[in-house]
Amino acid sequence: MSESAQPTQQLSPERTNASSELNPRCMAPVDADSPFNRPHADVILRTSDSVDFRFYKLLLSLASPFFANMFALPQPGPLDGAANQTKYDIPIIPVSEKSAVIRKLLSFCSPVYDTDVPALENLDIVMSVLDAADKYDMKRVGKFVVKMITAPQFLEQEPMRVFAIACRYRAEAETTIAARYMLRFAAWEPAYVAELDFISGSDYQRLIKYHASCGQAVGQLVRLWSTFPLPPLDCKFCRKKGLSRLSLKDYQDSVIDALRIRPCVETLLNPEWIETMVRKAGSCPGCRDRAPRKIQDYTKELAVPLDEIISQIRLEIKSY
């Protein structure tokens, strides 16, 4: 061996694995499982984590003008370098999304008998699917996914994110549902979420205006007080009427003050608020156990006119 010759360097298994982790494309591609491994498929989408999804050009073309235009272009001939990107004699299209996203995206493009409607476990995967749908111009898929974000699992846990996503995609019904749910919080309570960066300041201002308008509208309850007197709570221990000892004006003022901050019936059903009213009523130990239930029942009756008042307030949604 000459002095200039260098010994061949062998990569250790650890280094090879590290390289694969840094660049998933280095990993040997694997086939996706059913239903994306059918032998009669005519195109393969290879994800960034090296999973091959066999699918159909026709379905992709129907769902996506992006792919329709791609397939309409002249295909590479046998002497072109691109022709080597095949597997099972099927052309391969590399995509930048991970397999978890492509599986859900293709499921939305599949006939209903082919796959079940994919579950969207959290709003992070929702955003990934929506971003992919935007990228490939799959408008129908995007609209379908947006309609799913008002499910309780999302709305109850992250209502501000739901509002921002719905607002970003100009989904009027979903934006309104999320804004209505946001009435359960004071205007200053929701924390910042990254999705707010994708909507305008005027979009957020309209949410604040809607919240304030609902808070002002609850003052209309004043004209209904005679229809909803405080419930009696006869107590054989204290020989008094329990809740009726609560000043009507004190109760009315407490209701209006609470609803101006959080204008929804859930405010009045909050156990902490009910406990405050019970303490103000000065109920004895004998009737305190029944007082919360009485107030809950009373509030549920009050919920009907309150809901009608709030429903009259419209959220302004700017369309583009």
Automatic annotation (TrEMBL):
<protein>
    <submittedName>
        <fullName>Unplaced genomic scaffold PAXINscaffold_440, whole genome shotgun sequence</fullName>
    </submittedName>
</protein>
<feature type="region of interest" description="Disordered">
    <location>
        <begin position="1"/>
        <end position="33"/>
    </location>
</feature>
<dbReference type="InterPro" id="IPR011333">
    <property type="entry name" value="SKP1/BTB/POZ_sf"/>
</dbReference>
<feature type="compositionally biased region" description="Polar residues">
    <location>
        <begin position="1"/>
        <end position="22"/>
    </location>
</feature>
<dbReference type="Pfam" id="PF00651">
    <property type="entry name" value="BTB"/>
</dbReference>
<dbReference type="InterPro" id="IPR000210">
    <property type="entry name" value="BTB/POZ_dom"/>
</dbReference>
<feature type="domain" description="BTB">
    <location>
        <begin position="41"/>
        <end position="108"/>
    </location>
</feature>
